[in-house]
Amino acid sequence: MKDCNQCGKCCIKYSDGALSASAQDIDDWELFNPEIYAYVNAGEIWYLPETKKLLQLCPWLTAIENTHPVKYGCDIYLDRPEDCRLYPSRIDEMQRDGCEMLEVKDLKNPKKAQEKLNKLMADSHHG
Ligand code: SF4
Ligand code: SF4
After folding, report:
1. Domain annotation covers residue 73
2. Which residues line ligand 2 (CB under 6 A)?
3. What is the domain extent for residue 116?
4. Has residue 66 got a pLDDT over 80?
5. Does residue 65 carry a pLDDT above 60?
6. Whole-prediction pTM value?
7. Is the CB of 58 under 6 A from ligand 1?
8. In-domain check, residue 115
9. Rounded to the nearest 5 degrees, what angle is found at the Cα of 25, between the Cα atoms of 113 and 55?
10. What is the domain count for the chain?
């Protein structure tokens, strides 16, 4: 299992309406981060504030300059929604998503890889 290389695939895949924020996230944004709260519509993320239209791509995903292949950052990393904090959580999901943390040996032994991932996520604030 490699470290996340910020390829952005997970954000790009899931940010068009497939992500959820917790009620706590939304309450916190309303109080402390109105600029994030502006993109919430009826408890769902991410919607353009002006039109209330569902966005195809997360508004907080930013390509980092001069990176080849391009790496992505999250502009609200410390305040990102629950689904983003909890990713990745399952080897099969990572495989489906083409997550670049996976190595050949993880695919050969997904059970062991899952144990490694569980530990990694429990140990880090990524999770
Ligand atoms: S909020 Fe951050 S982590 Fe979540 S999809 Fe957007 S850029 Fe990715
Ligand atoms: S798909 Fe995997 S390697 Fe790429 S940004 Fe997401 S967690 Fe990181």
Report:
1. yes
2. 4-10, 88, 97, 99-101
3. 9-123
4. yes
5. yes
6. 0.93
7. yes
8. yes
9. 85
10. 1
